[in-house]
Amino acid sequence: MATARFRIKEHTLPASHIRDYARGTADDQEAVLHIAIKQYIPIDSTHEDEGDVTVIGAHANGFPKELYEPLWDDLYERLKAQNVKIRSVWIADVSHQGQSGVLNEHKLGNDPSWFDHPRDLFLMVNHFRKHMKRPLIGIGHSAGGNHLINLSLMHPRLFTTLVMIDPVAQRLQATEGSSGIAGASTVRRDRWPSRKDARAAFGRSKFYQAWDPRVFDKWIEHGLRELPTLIHPGSQTAKTTIPVVSADPSTASVTPDKNTETEVTLKTTKHQEVLTFLRANFPTSEYPDPSNNANPITHIDVDPATGPNSPFYRPEPVATHARLPFVRPSVLYLFGGKSDVSTPMLKADKMASTGIGPGGSGGAKKGRVKEVTFQDIGHLIPMEVVGRTADTATEWIVSEIERYRRLEEEHNREWSKVPKQMKPQMDEKYKKMITSNWASELKMGYVQKVSKLAAWTVRALSGLQSSPRLLLSIFFHNDVDTTIIHQRDNEAVQPPISSSYHRTSNMASKNSEQVFTFEQMSCVIAALLEKGSTLSNPTFALMKAVENTKTVSGYEHWFRAAKARAKEINENRANLDTATPLKKTKAAAATTPKSTGGKKRGRKAQAEVADADANGEDEDDNESPSKRSKREDSHKIEEGVKEEPAMD
User: Fold this and answer.
1) For the domain bounded by 6-92+108-175+314-404, which CATH number is listed?
2) Are 159 and 202 in contact (CB under 8 A)?
3) Which residues are catalytic?
4) pLDDT tens for each residue of 384-429
5) In whole angstroms, what is the distance from residue 320 CA to residue 25 CA?
């Protein structure tokens, strides 16, 4: 077997042990599934050079791996013209689709997970490691893009760069768009009298007419299989010639000649394709509202904050989007201008999130993430515009390989200066620093930075005369400038830290520089709830409380943590009211830090504020004008807010 530029080797490899969902397999949860792999080796390759590129591909849902062979051919030609040589290309069908689906036909269940294939690819890389030499480049389409992002998160240094072709990863559930495609696939025809008849039927569809002819030929060759199959056990033979009597006169059977064709069906069953689009989450008597309170055993990955999760949902795109900040390899996004998964907001969200977290590439701001949109194309970019896809990918890959080679040379030059005996040892600089007073100095600097942020927050709050909820929404939405105009003197109150690596916004920011880190936002919440107090141990308790939600999309999680902290503060104050005088004094000293914003409020007023914040309400949501006026006058008297010095 071969393509225009490659000879092909086929491999079969056991998939990862234990699938993500219990019903991913039919009978035994420890059943061994296999993945069908193809390795593409350049025909004109006489030897392998250091620095030759290894490509790992990943296919879209319902499309066999062979449909990307024209892309590999075009990419090889263009890269070779730029003095970048492909060592080999590797791609595997996911375990329940394509040739892998045929191998596992009698073992498959009805609950596939997108997170299984990244683990399978990781095993593939380890197994064929002597062929998987750096630099490695990942090229994934649609769900395949999601697979490679997760593989890069499992092993951040594996890939030098990723080319993501209209990948599926978004902040909220997108069941509306998926339901239309899934519904159409559910009722699609999946059986034809012969391969020739199937080709004619597909050829009449505008859907397939838009494809590159080479891709369409691969679809007819590899997207179909002959009957019988597990779900189509019956078969009728389509006879193209008059049958001849068997050579064995003792039998009454008739043997068709080599031109006889057999019924065909989809190699990836429509059932596995649709089940991959959307996962069922139906109401039951025990869990009548599974969108908000799902079965914790079978649907532990349902996140109510991400939108409707019943009757169908798909957790992996949302979970993957939440981890985009931590993607380390550089990323080229190829978007379809007419694609439902690449609307302007979805594109902007990916661009704003990818690579900006700790351990990430640095994101678009550092030139490590780029987007190109094919305005006239939908989701099937590598099927419809193979050459343009290869052109755009080549330009990006060439620049990234040049960077890779430069960094490799620098690393090898510096590392070679260290004697081999010293390489596994601590160097002198390390030993000197580890025995110094570095920990105390670091802690002191952090405390000073946090105190400055807390003081700024108090000043901004006193200027807004609003509840924490409003100020937090400004931070989280980030669709307005986070510079707050102080209402008393019209003075701009600038945040002391104007940039960071971690985004908390729910949408693309118009002011991406002024975003707080996770820990900084924790301090902001604590400062707001303390109503002007300095930060002490309760702040770090809050940080701990929200630690498990920092990578989950949706700012509702922050409010939950803030409400819990407000409730804790309120309960502490209630305990003070019932304590003895001596206990009151000790408890107050332990739980009420000194104010940085002026005199303390009365406990009653503070409790009212904490209650309002705990319920997620503004103080004046349900008040009459007269009552509001009295309350505001009372607060002014009780607070005695002093002017804070302007922040630098």
Assistant:
1) 3.40.50.1820
2) no
3) 142, 166, 379
4) 999 999 999 999 999 999 999 999 999 999 999 999 999 999 999 9
5) 24
